[in-house]
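Quick question, first post here. What does this chain look like in 3D?
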Amino acid sequence: MSKNLVIVESPAKAKTIQKYLGKDFEVKSSFGHIRDLPKKGMGIDLATFSPDYEVSADKKKLVTELKAAVKKAEMVWLASDEDREGEAIAWHLADELKLKPENRKRIVFHEITKNAILKAIENPRDIDQNLVNAQQARRVLDRIVGFEMSPVLWKKVKPGLSAGRVQSVAVRLIVEREKEIREFVPKASFKLDGIFLNKTEQEISAKLKKDFEKEEDAEKFLEKAKTTEFKVLNVETRPGTRTASAPFTTSTLQQEASSRLGYNVTNTMRLAQRLYEEGYITYMRTDSVNLSQEAIEGAKKQITSEYGAEYSSPRNYTTKSASAQEAHEAIRPTDFAVKSIGDAQLNRLYQLIYRRTLASQMANAKIEKTVIEIGNASLPQHFEAQGEVIIFDGFLKAYGIVKTEDDDEDNNEKLLPKVSVGEILSYKKITASEKFTRPSARYTEAGLVKKLEELGIGRPSTYAPTIQTIQNREYVDKREIDPQTREVVKMSLTNDKIKKEVLEEKFGGDKNKFIPTDIGEVVNDFLTDNFKEILDYGFTARVEESFDEIANGDQKWKEMMTTFYSKFHPRIEDVEENADRANGDRLLGVDPKTGKNVHARIGRFGAMIQIGETEDEEKPIFASLMTGQNIATISLAEALELFKLPFELSAFDGQPVSVGVGRFGPYVKWGETFISIPKGEDPLSVSQARAEEIINEKKKADAPIASYKGDPVTKGTGRFGPFIKYKDLFINVPKKYNFDNLSQDDINELIDAKLEKEANRYIQQWEKEKISIENGRWGPFVKFGKAMFKIPKKKDDTKYEAEELKDVSLDEVKKWITDQDKNAFAEKKKPAAKKPAAKKTTAAKKPAAKKK
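> Answer (accepted):
Ran it through. Tokens below.
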């Protein structure tokens, strides 16, 4: 048996490290954290802020295996990542595995190479308690904020919602940007572009240096230009340089992978993790742009051999952020001799990191910029043409140029023909185009990461999970926004004639950008109104600074928690007691048919329109909003249109037909079958003929494609991809099958495998009571309705075997359930009749009806 046991947090990392260590070392993985705060309950003593950690159910078997391995080893090396999270993992392992200081060593490395591993073994240290405490402070503070704020949302907004220190601030950024866009009033102006010809008929494209606010001013300029002799008034050529960007940090990698490769933040971090674990790059969670001397020398050698000595310009970068840890390195290749790797997807990200690091060590690009001024003394404004020539490509040789969405789309710098001052030019065409100002762009994932970093909110390890969380909670999404249309004026001067046109222009469309949902806006408004400090960008950044101070040993984490909680908890109690309920209610106007108020608000199932008041004698009527509609922007006319749904059409094939809108969008209902109306199609425009067409398409799609043991098999595509359906079973079709051409053998194979899996799923089942004992991924468990419960140990403290569970009685299983949830079988009380609430008086609302 090996004398040394090395524990890392990832199996891929374990596999790579094992290659570099001899037979005296055994490398095992903890698969991340082995213990954490409990999933149910807060798990924190609020008097002392001591966390009550527990080993998660899925890690108990692993912990037992690690304890057995520890007993056989003389020395345990804790080799989790070098950040706070990694330090906490090492601390939890040491504590749970009962490792004594003399039998454990902590080692860290920012790259998984043989030299780095051996060097770490030669320079071990003990666990850094300051780093552990910084991670504990983050975990505990975020748990308290989430656990105390979320129930307030359940009570004041809607059950099932959640709040979080960083996620709520990220949502606030997106909501505020959306409100800014809604309130933006575009201003029109006329921009003039000219194409001029020199004596050799070469074209020069130029722009007028000033825009005109009014159409008549632009037209006057064109009239004057008809008879103007255009000359070259000035030619200026000046040298310039372009400088390479610093090597990648976590944030800049996420931004660049988005703009260059189209990767989202989560995908970028997943691929970077694999590159790190397989030894290709240094640690991928870093806010430092620093490079080691060894890396600078390696880059220099590669640049000199590949491009030549004139391209090499070694330099080190310093991080502007005060909280960045310069002891860490930027993200870079571990070996510059490795120019590409086999896996195509990994290689795309590796190439980006490789080229960015090389470029950072290369010479500046030298350019020559030429500016030509064109006009006449009689004209109030002159045209300007800009061109650029690269004299020496420098770092561009490795990295190239990428255009960002912030760049001016018209700023296409190009090579200009040779001209001299005083030279006469003729115009080929001068165009005056009406252009409108645009609001700030919605956030992309990369843009949101950049903004969070600028504000000092979160750290490299938090960006990806934060962005994932706010989407999972359905506070924001990336739905496509259809563009609107407006008229624009375009005037063209050609051959001394002015042609005026009125054209249509699309604007305001967007896709793959963050847009707040209705519930996201309501939750944000409630939190910003009632928890201003928690949602304050400065406060969130100061909390991050406190974590940094704890990590440096300059602050005690429990003192920080005491200060925070002494202000936070009273605010929670005050809001819970005194704040009004929030549902985003917006009074749209009055329904002309009934004379009742029309409201847009959040209801039990999401955004809806309500005609009438809840306290009226006659109950209000409701309609769901359609995809793309929003309670903050919907008009009265659009809202009233929704009440035309559902509507009945004539029966088809003996089954009634209707059109409506539900939780999953517009549909045609045929008998008991709901058929989605294609995206972008207005349900109010669906005629009898169109409904029958949609039904026939569904019938065709649902027609049996085969049979299995005499019963039909159909196929379709759902939320989780392509599937086949046999009886009541939905069976996913993996990519290895040709879904468009499934053979009978394929179908038999898929159904056989599913039936075998289902047969092994239930150990016991009581259908009437909706209770079952099932086999799960991590062992058997009890299921009651949709809830899952653990199976307790037997009296002798051993686990039940599957065979033994076949003989357990229903009463015993019910006892297991009630031990974990006392109210599981309690009869649900009918809600008491609500007293009519006193209506708030607003100028727009009609007065409340008098009580009888």
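The radius of gyration is 33 Å.
Residues 129-156 form the longest helix (28 residues).
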